[in-house]
Design brief:
This is TauD/TfdA-like domain-containing protein. The protein is built from 6 helices and 16 strands. It has one domain (4-280): 4-Layer Sandwich (Double-stranded beta-helix), CATH 3.60.130. The protein has 301 residues and is α+β, with helices and mostly antiparallel strands. The longest helix is centred in the C-terminal third of the chain and has 15 residues, at 216-230. The chain has helices at residues 27-40, 52-59, 138-143, 147-153, 216-230, 279-285, and strands at residues 5-7, 14-16, 42-45, 86-89, 102-106, 119-127, 131-137, 157-161, 184-188, 190-192, 199-201, 208-211, 236-240, 246-250, 254-260, 267-274. A 7-stranded mixed sheet has the order 1-2-3-14-6-16-4.
Amino acid sequence: MPVAWKPIADSFGAIVTDVDLSAPIDKELGGELRRLFFERRVLIFPEQDMSPAAQVAFMSLLSGVIVEPAMAVGATNSVPKNDRFVFISNTDKGTYGPETDEVVFHSDYMFTPAGALQAQSWYNIENEVESRTSYTNMVRAAALLPADLRAKVEDLFVVNALAMTPGFRFDSRCRMSRVPDAPHAVHPIIERHPVTGDEFIDVSPLFSSHVLGWDDATSEELFAEIEAAVYKPDNIIHQDWNLNDFVAWDNVAIQHRYVSADREGTRTFRRVIANPYELSALWAGAEAALWQPPTGDIFAA
């Protein structure tokens, strides 16, 4: 039986309306959900009663659900190290923030040689404030890239770096001179999706440092051209969070951006990720042997 869903935009995003994810997912339903995921890239399931085990079961349809090592960059880490979920929260249960009002567009782990994580999901378990996650489709952006810009970038490589070294804020681009201090990797600006084979643009405001072989100023000019072509209103969809919303997205094809209207109220998401490789393999491959995750407040000025 086909899954009932409503499009968010013509080209991507779906609100799934008739699936109870607290119940076991049989083979037929699982196949339909996986097909819909890679077709629509972002799936929103409102008002789900979802345990950690149910979230893991859903994400297992997409790839192997992997353990996320505790970085504890914000407050404390209350999740046992071997559990396959973490919290994104401004409370003391948070493994990660958000402690800021905004995190700019990016795909998680795009700074590693293997590229971005294949899929990730958030389930809203505490929601006292207005908050929004926006998603932009980098596959659609590649397909609609103006011909002159495509000709300019199709043979170029980008250095993507983790801009979480001390002294950087999440809304600042990692400078070329600091890249050796951070995990980083080189990728074609136009990449191929490992599951669907679609072309996508592998540049983001958060993680992209510079074009390989170019200086900062010239790289910034090109990045500005790319971002003007990519982050258009007709290529962005929005999720205004409600309690018990569950969202899963293709973290390779889709970049996300988080915004909260208020720092004060409690907000917590439970995150589960799926990927062919464990994170330890991704971290080991990033070219920064002496770098260690920060332990202080990476959001401080």
